[in-house]
Amino acid sequence: MALLIKKSRLPGAGKGLYTTKAIRRDSRIIEYRGEIIGNREYRRRTRREEDQYLFYLRRDLCIDALHTPQYKARYANDAAGITRVKGIRNNSDYMTFGDKCFIVASRDIKAGEEIFVNYTKSYWDSMRKRLKKREKRNIQKRH
Asked: 92-133, pLDDT tens digit by residue?
């Protein structure tokens, strides 16, 4: 699969993952790779807010792509996240196969399109909660 990293179409999202070739629905686009960590390390990184690139495979196993920028799957953004753009929708989902995770096309994707994957409601609920805590701390620091 020919994939490129360039500026995302979502404001504030940074980089995005794009395909240079058409992708058929239900095709595996790319494996989500990174450091494999256990539940204890997962909890530690979450407390330190180092969990932006964590994928929970199962209760005791996670993939963390934070320190592995060479793996392109981490650059796929979620069009249904905090910042949304009219007309941009997710075109893929995460799917696990044993101890591996892949981004899989949920519809046909045209060459040149950005890959958008569903991060799940629980991920965004957690991020919103974190933003509220951060805002509260910043207000307290100013007073």
From this structure: 999 999 889 999 999 999 999 999 999 988 888 888 887 887
Contact 90, 104 (CB under 8 A): no
d(C-alpha 122, C-alpha 125), whole Å: 5
Note the Cα 27 to chain centre separation in Å: 18
Q: How many domains does the chain have?
A: 1
Contacts of 60 (CB under 8 A, 6+ apart): 38, 39
For residues 76 and 113, what is the distance between their CA atoms, to the nearest angstrom? Answer: 11
This prediction's pTM: 0.86
For 58-105, write each residue's pLDDT tens digit.
888 999 999 999 999 999 999 998 888 999 999 999 999 988 999 999
> Cα–Cα distance between 83 and 79 in angstroms, integer?
8
Average pLDDT value for residue range 19-44? 95
Q: Where are the alpha helices (DSSP H) in the chain?
A: 39-47, 121-142
Q: Which domain holds residue 83?
A: 3-142
User: CATH number of the domain that 50 lies in?
Assistant: 2.170.270.10
Report which DSSP code applies to 24.
Answer: -
